[in-house]
Amino acid sequence: MTADEKAGAVAVSPPGPGLPAGRGARLALTALRGSRRFTAPVAAVAVGVVLVLLLQGNGFTSTLVVDMLVYAIAAMSLDFLGGYAGLISLGQAGFLGVGAYGVAIAEVHFFSPWAAVGIGLGAVLALGLALGIVAVRTKGVSFVIITLAIGQVLWGLAFQWVGLSEGDNGIPLTILPALGPFDLNDPLTLRMTVLVVFAVVALLLVTFVHSPFGLSLRGVRSNETRLAALGYRTGLHRYLAWVIAVFFAGVAGVLYIFVNQLISPAAMAFSQDGLLVIMVVLGGLGSIWGPALGAVVIVLFQQELSIYLSRWQTLMGLTMIAVVLFSPGGLWGLVRAAGRRRDALIARLEAGQARRGAS
Amino acid sequence: MTAPATEPPALVADHLSRRFRGLTAVADVSLQVAPGARFGIIGPNGAGKTTLFNLLSGELRPTTGSVALFGRDITALPTYRRAALGLGRTFQITRIFSDLTVLENLTLALHGLSRTKLSLLRPWRSYRGMTAEAATLAASFGLAQRLAAPASDLSHGEVRELEVLLALALKPKVLLLDEPAAGLSPAERVDIQALLTSLPAELTLVMIEHDIDVLRGVVDSAAVLHLGSLVVQGPMRDIQNDERVRELYLGGAGARTPGILALEDSPPPGTSPPEEAGPPPEAGTPADPPPEAGPPEGGGGP
Amino acid sequence: MQQFVAQTLNGLTLAGIIFLVSSGFTLVFGVMRVTNLSHGAVYLLGGYIGYSVITATHNFFYGLVAGALAMGVFGLLLERTLITWLGGREMSELLATLGLIYVIDDISLAIWGGSPLTINLPGLLGRSTTLPISGIVYPNDRIFILGVSVVIAVGLYYLLRRTRVGAIVRAGVDDREMVSALGINVRLVFTLVFTLGALLAGFAGVLGGTVLGVYTGGDGDILLFALAVVIIGGLGSFEGAIVGSLIIGLIQNYGTAYFPAVAYSILFIPVIVILLVKPEGLLGKVTR
Question: Is residue A108 part of a domain?
């Protein structure tokens, strides 16, 4: 089960006679019940406020947060494909690169910035639609291998097709889109736009996940042959999930080049594909929000930890291994587990209250 | 068999064969099942029954032969299309969505033949009609309390019930049941039998089963398979009295080596699963005493 | 024409190296269903170790042995710890070995630095020979690689097809449960196969270090080749690894020689063709 769904299922052991009732217990019960109702909305608002504050500044922190948001988009869309449909892609960075390169190459050929965005997204969509036909002929391990190959081939093109991509040097981007007063060339506007796009993508993905289509993806992951016997054209569902995931990676790519004002093949290297998968797994495969958390952690590893620890990549790899071994639900899974423990505690307190009330 | 001439049979298998790299799992099997019939498929383990089902429901393509549903040739159609045409199926090794809740299992099934399964923007829980229908379906077979439970938490009997419910959710016209009572305790078998007899009369049932009580309570006629070939088909009474059938179940027990059977009939990995070695067919299969009391012929099998 | 023959030989040399890496990968998958993404990193680490030993001792063969043995031991330890702890969960094995790549790469970076290294071969291997018939002057180290790859391929083929151990391994690819039911120590077979795979990869790393160099990112490159090979040849198929390596090695080499702009991506064409026509691979038998 996904980390999310595990928490929702009623699988709590019976509370037994419960904890002794008393004023302390009553207070604790009220507090815990309150936290259950208010934690999520309060946390969301708090995070939103923190993000806006962080993005106001013009320094290192705001750049860091923007990076986190961009990667979070790519990671969350990867989770949609990997955690829900069960198709883990090791080529997501390749599509991020296509989005970015699309914008850059279009501007090099004198398209206007908005047109360039359209071309970038269009390129990702076209490539996703075409490659999806091949990619969804495989599942499980073979799918991982195919997507790795796709990602590497895209990287190879960026590296070697120098006429188009200018090879290792990459392509800089100087002009960002503007629409009247709304000018992405202004750093603050750009950062806020990234936040808004992130929020929109996140909400879309969460909506998709809870839709019948999202349920069908979980069915594909759980027992695809049964789903087919129930009338589902499972290949189509996997294809659509792929196209959605790849498209949002392209969206992340467009934001990426806006923010970094440069795209080079390094952004599409295998280590980047791996990084995105690590973000998803670390954050929580199949939780949609977890990967955003994973992106935060990994970007912190990359930018902050690297200052103090040269061997931060070793630590990151070991953390990945540890998560796979001990906490497959990732960080989000830990959060959910805490929530379940709280629910169990509430149940025991309530049982204790009930006993006291009954006697 | 006794269907009016104007109405096409619900299900027709026409000279169906399936070979796997030198092994013939199903050999030239032809069947006709009338609409509303209660038809059984019986035979010793390794007879090719599940492979036959796989051919009928689309998990496998036949090497030769065809399948027709209400007169329509479905041989080339993939499984999901056959489901849309009214062919439902349960699996011998249960295939439920074990990491989803019972409610989610049923919801998935209910959306199966509806456009809504591709809907992206509405939460699936907001389809109140579907949720109510799922609850009704679960309640009708005693699973109402278990809606929120993950399917992995269900008892074996409940899993078998869910297995049938998932197929029923599609409101099929023909239902293929693969050993619905396998592995159940006697009490659970009673429940399953009750479930099966309560199914609508218009529904055509084709059932693979070893348990003679379940068969007798549900099935009017049957076909007997052995090593992929059809031995005999007809009303249950005729089958129970048939010499060849009694040989199969009684006489050859010592002469056949299960190991050889398993080797001959197990398809390569990655294709249909070999039939589960279920409980051996009960020695007392023929209900009536044999007309001539004579020693069963040994060596009746290969 | 001479150029073409030389390029063909280069392609075959590359095919040999790729074969050594991909045969280990495919056998480990076939027998254990483990997708060891760190296989490329093992290759690279073997190359680094070989480089150090050769530089210190000026003896190529010490380097070869060191690289192979060190990686064999590494594989043995890895199988007994991480792989065993993961308990057969395929996706988890894949993800954990993904994490392992970063560990191996980073430690290699710490020890050997980020600059590409070339293994300079002393003596006879550092020279070239004039080949008969075509009159091409071809480097001896490549001739050696070609020869060694063929010998090992033949040896592995013999091992798999003619020995009892090989029969067990092949049976394990087909039906693991049956092998276990026959009373064979499957755990031991797993460890042996995994260790052998790592040993071959380390060995290949030293060989590859001479003609391809030892460089950061070399693990990704060789892994991609190996994965292309197993897609084309079929996951779990030894013969498929031979066929696939020949195809990939030759195509990659001709591509780099004649179409440098898209050489890397040309690899993709046979991969796509296979996926569209025969997704389980040319000689594939294992369904995932």
Answer: yes
Q: A229 CA to chain B: closest CA distance, Å? A: 6
Question: Residue C275 and residue A140: Cβ atoms within 8 Å?
Answer: no
- Mean pLDDT on A131-145: 88
Task: Give the domain range for residue A74.
Answer: 60-272
Residue in B84, B101, B117 closest to A216 by CB: B117
Q: What is the pLDDT of residues B137-150, one digit of tens each?
A: 888 888 888 888 88
Chain C residue numbers touching A271 (CB-CB < 8 A) = 102, 220
Residue C266 C-alpha, separation from nearest chain A C-alpha, in angstroms? 8
pLDDT at B211 over 70: yes
Measured between CB atoms, does B199 come within 8 Å of chain A?
no
Q: Are A141 and C231 an interchain contact pair (Cβ–Cβ within 8 Å)?
A: no
Q: Do A153 and C276 touch (CB under 8 A)?
A: no
- A309 found inside a domain: no
Give the mutation candidate from C102, C221, C223 for the A interface (greatest A CB count, under 10 A). C102
B270 in C contact zone (CB under 8 Å): yes
Q: Mean of the pLDDT values across residues A309-322? A: 93
pLDDT band at B288 (very low <50, low <70, confident <90, very high): very low
C-alpha to C-alpha distance for C19 and B13, rounded to whole angstroms: 48
pLDDT of residue A27: 81
CATH number of B1-86+172-302: 3.40.50.300
**B268 chain-C contacts, CB cut-off 8 A:** 174, 285
Tell whether the model's pLDDT for residue B17 goes beyond 70: yes
Q: Give the C-alpha separation, C129 to C135, whole Å.
A: 9
Q: Average pLDDT over chain B, rounded to whole?
A: 78
Touching check for A277 and chain C: CB below 8 Å? Answer: yes
Burial of A14 (0-12, 13-18, 19+ CB in 10 A): exposed
Q: Tokens 């503007």 — which residue?
A: A178
Residue A203 within any structural domain of the chain: yes
Whether C286 has a pLDDT exceeding 70, the answer reads no
Domain boundaries along the sequence of chain B: 1-86+172-302, 99-170
What is residue A13's predicted lDDT score, i.e. its pLDDT? 55
Q: Residue B111 corresponds to which amino acid? A: H
Assembly ipTM = 0.89
Q: How far is A321 from chain C (nearest CA, A)?
A: 5
Task: Tell me what pLDDT residue B166 has.
Answer: 92
B90 close to B178: Cβ distance less than 8 angstroms: yes
More confident residue, B61 or A17: B61
Give the mean model confidence (pLDDT) for residues A57-62.
78
Residues 58-77 of chain B with CB under 8 A from chain A are 59
B119: Cα within 13 Å, side-chain hemisphere:
18
Collapsing DSSP states into helix, strand and coil, what is residue B181? Answer: coil
Assign domain C2-113+130-277 one CATH number from 1.10.287, 1.10.3470, 1.20.1300, 1.10.10: 1.10.3470
Question: Does residue A120 lie in a domain region?
Answer: yes
Q: Tell me: pLDDT of C93 over 90.
A: yes
Distances in whole angstroms, Cα of residue A51 to Cα of each of A44, A62, A199: 10, 9, 11
Number of compact structural domains in chain A:
1
State whether B83 and A210 contact (CB < 8 Å). no
User: How many cross-chain Cβ pairs, B to C, lie less than 8 Å apart?
Assistant: 8
- Residue C79's H or E segment, with its range, is none
Scanning every residue of chain A, which has its alpha carbon at the shortest distance from the alpha carbon of B84? A231
Chain C partners within 8 Å of A281 (Cβ): 95
The mean pLDDT value for A72-88 works out to: 95
- The minimal CB distance from A313 to the residues C102, C262, C275 is found for C102
- What pLDDT, on the 0 to 100 scale, is given for residue B270? 44
- Partner-chain residue, chosen from A5, A213, A226, that has the shortest CB–CB distance to B118: A213
Per DSSP, helices labelled H in chain A are: 3-8, 23-56, 60-79, 92-108, 113-135, 140-160, 162-165, 187-210, 212-229, 234-260, 270-283, 290-300, 306-308, 312-326, 330-358
Q: Residue B279's pLDDT is what?
A: 39
Most confident of A12-26, A55-69, A303-317: A303-317
